[in-house]
Amino acid sequence: MSKKYGNDFAWCFHEEGYDTPRQIEIWHSLGNGESEVMGYATDKYNAQQIIDALIIAEKVNDDPENKMSKKEVVFLQFVSANCPEPWTTMADNAIMWNDRDAYNTLKAKFSEIY
Asked: Exposure pattern of 14-25 as b/e (b: 16+ CB <10 Å)?
């Protein structure tokens, strides 16, 4: 059974339960309901990394105001390096996904968690 990984902008399909020896196609939307293969990955983990990177790039490119400043990223790195779980994981994910909501949550709770 194939499982879709990604969103409506970029996605791939991989088989659940076993690794396939063939390359995995990376798909992307062209708009108007059309899509095409934009690349190939050697395994499902590489495919997932490519999809994650494309989704992050799309999120920032669609809304340049959403991109975190260096000051915000440094704060999240500090939280990641010096605070207990689950805050470190939350900070790492906020950096990776450019998640402003997670940043605001960590900033508001910083006095409690540090």
From this structure: beeeeeeeeebb
Among 12-26, 52-66, 70-84, whose mean pLDDT is lowest? 52-66
Q: Which helix (H) or strand (E) holds 60?
A: helix 44-62
In 3D space, the residue among 12, 69, 72 whose CA is nearest the CA of residue 37 turns out to be 12
Closest to 62 in 3D by CA, of 26, 29, 102: 29
Local structure of residue 68 (DSSP, 8 states): P
Segments making up each domain of the chain, as ranges = 2-63, 70-113
pLDDT at 57 over 90: no
Residue type, position 42, single letter:
T
